[in-house]
Description:
Blueprint: H1 2-40, H2 44-50, E1 58-61, E2 64-67, H3 69-79, E3 83-88, E4 94-99, E5 102-114, E6 121-134, E7 137-147
Parallel strand pairs: 1-7
Antiparallel strand pairs: 1-2, 3-5, 4-5, 5-6, 6-7
Helix pairs in contact: 1-2
Amino acid sequence: MWTGSRTTLAAVLMLCAGSVQAGTEDEVKAQFSKFVAAQNAHDLKAVGAMLLDSPQFLWITRGAPIWGREAALKRFEALYQGTWSLDPKTDELKVFEVQPGVAQLYVPITFMVAPAGQSAQPARFLMNQLLVKTTDGWKISSVLPIPAPTQ
């Protein structure tokens, strides 16, 4: 009798753990979809609402760190003056929970970036984001695009 109860308890705990992870994955994927839509719309306010409002927010761009939400928003504002669009390969998007309330996102992505008046060339990256769950939902705490190898 006790063995059956332990087996049942273990099964219930595994189901609950899977549900938490599945919920996290769905929430983080939804947040990333909103992030891409806001980036492609050049919606600085919407992008800002998704970034962690902290001096520890980190974005590595062109090999240089940008620390803090406000500094990142200034950089995005400058980029939005030209061509700036993101095209993620969502079928390859992966999310895993680092610990409760912290998730890692990975997705191959193509950026189209160029200053105003210049034509953009596609650049492939392996996008990595770290997100933390706050009282206001999931916030992006780091953006780490790594140049993808040429194919």
